[in-house]
Amino acid sequence: MLKRSRTILLFYLLLIAVCLEPAVAWSQSAANPKVVEAARREGELIWYTTMTLDQSQQVVDRFQKKYPFIKPTLFRTGGGPLLNKIFTEARGGLYAWDVAVGRGEMVLPLMEKKLIAAYRSPETKMIDDDLVDNESYWTAYYVNGYVLGYNTKLVKKEDVPRTYEALLNPRWKGGQISVDTEAYGMLQGLIGAWGKEKAVSYFKRLAALDPIPKRGNTERVQLAVAGEYPLILAYN
């Protein structure tokens, strides 16, 4: 299993190499030949991801163009279902995936079950230090920012909340705000900015407005556009 986990992260190097712009002067001049040869012998790459399908398919297409001798297989789902899939397969002795891209809170459970191994890609020198794990178990190569969206037919521009406190106005009580049931990143970000006590207190006050909890960023945005609710907290 550990050997398979190392393959996961070696392939991760190849995947990152495809995503980064070649014009950056201090990037790798070429992929590690030993890694490429090992990938050639295996001949297949299975990628589990939470990235939207249109974006992840572009990555796969560019990867296949760069490495035509490797057959990529893409599986895309949400963070919770993806983690459950990995654990279910592992319990059955199946370790099919080579690369997993998901939300930050997935890392610790995978580490605890020894399903990933530490590996630091040379490409991480192109990424800010605070986006790379000190022990090399994860690398963040894209960041989602949480935003407040609104349906322009239901809310006038001048009435849109412009501060965190304004979002707690009683006028938004009773199913007026869509929130993600797994928006751990937003809570984590506010803890970093405000401290744990203030951040948790804010979310409790937000919960008192009886927002609409639902999983799935893309679907919730579509529902907001359709007029299911006037406000939505989602990542951009």
Mean pLDDT, nearest integer? 84
CATH class of the largest domain: Alpha Beta
- How many structural domains can be distinguished in the coordinates? 2
The succession of helices and strands, N to C, reads HHEHEHEHEEHHEHE
Question: Would you give an account of this structure?
Answer:
- This protein has helices at 2-19, 33-42, 53-66, 79-91, 107-112, 184-194, 196-207, 217-226, and strands at residues 44-49, 71-76, 99-101, 146-150, 177-180, 212-214, 231-235.
- With 236 residues, the protein is an alpha/beta fold.
- It folds into 2 domains: 2-131, D-Maltodextrin-Binding Protein, domain 2 (3-Layer(aba) Sandwich), CATH 3.40.190; 146-235, Periplasmic binding protein-like II (D-Maltodextrin-Binding Protein, domain 2, 3-Layer(aba) Sandwich).
- The strands form 2 sheets. It has a 4-stranded mixed β-sheet, covered by helices on one side. It has a 3-stranded parallel β-sheet with strand order 2-1-3.
- Helix 3 (53-66) links the parallel strand 1 and strand 2 (71-76).
- Helix 1 (2-19) packs across helix 3 (53-66) and helix 6 (184-194) packs across helix 7 (196-207).
- The longest helix has 18 residues, at 2-19.
- Mean pLDDT is 84; it is low at 1-29.
Q: How would you summarize this macromolecular structure in one to three sentences?
A:
This protein is of the alpha/beta class and 236 residues long. Helix content is 40%, strand content 14%.
Topology, pairings included?
Layout: H1 2-19, H2 33-42, E1 44-49, H3 53-66, E2 71-76, H4 79-91, E3 99-101, H5 107-112, E4 146-150, E5 177-180, H6 184-194, H7 196-207, E6 212-214, H8 217-226, E7 231-235
Parallel strand pairs: 1-2, 1-3, 5-6, 5-7
Antiparallel strand pairs: 4-7
